[in-house]
Amino acid sequence: MILEKIIEALLFSAQKSLSIREISAVIKGGEAESEPPSSELARVSEAEIAAALEQLKMEYVQQQRAFQLIEKADGWQLASDPAFAKWRTRENCRTRRSPWPSATLRNDTFFSRSLRPSQSR
Questions:
Q1: Is the distance from CB of 7 to CB of 23 less than 8 angstroms?
Q2: What is the CB neighbour count within 10 angstroms for residue 14?
Q3: Among 13, 16, 40, residue whose Cα is nearest residue 27
Q4: Distance between CA 25 and CA 90 in Å, rounded?
Q5: H or E stretch including 80?
Q6: Cα–Cα distance between 6 and 69 in angstroms, integer?
Q7: Does residue 2 contact residue 41 with C-beta atoms inside 8 Å?
Q8: Which of 74, 75, 67, 72 is nearest to 49 (CA)?
């Protein structure tokens, strides 16, 4: 079903847990900009979204995926399965930083400072 795929894409790209209300707003907001404006997604209820979330949760368990769908106090979130915790060490899962090497950033900072007008004038 397209609703489940949309929800899965939203949860995958989210930086935080998403409530059913937030998911509903995104789905209906995205649908308002598309052709035609009166599609089935524009009329999706929060109960249908909740059912789709539960369906996704069961599918992930049945498929024995390395991730799971969990419900937290503030919403739903995709998370790694705890069974794979030993592979999620700090060294293996660092947060993504700037694609520029730190030496490049230091050089850019040096050059930007050296190009500033002198403040002693």
A1: yes
A2: 16
A3: 40
A4: 35
A5: strand 75-80
A6: 14
A7: yes
A8: 75
Contact in structure between 42 and 32 (CB atoms under 8 Å): yes
3-state class (DSSP) for residue 21: helix
> Tokens 């939203």 — which residue?
10
Each residue's pLDDT tens digit, 20-75: 999 999 988 865 454 554 477 888 999 999 999 999 999 999 999 888 999 999 99
Map residue 6 onto helix, strand or coil: helix
Contact indicator for 10, 16 with CB cutoff of 8 Å: no
Note if the pTM is more than 0.70. Answer: no
Specify the 3-state DSSP secondary structure of 75: strand
CA distances from 55 to 10, 65, 74, 98, 103 (A): 15, 14, 19, 37, 48
Measure CA 48 to chain center.
21
- Among 4, 59, 57, 58, smallest CA distance to 27 is for 4
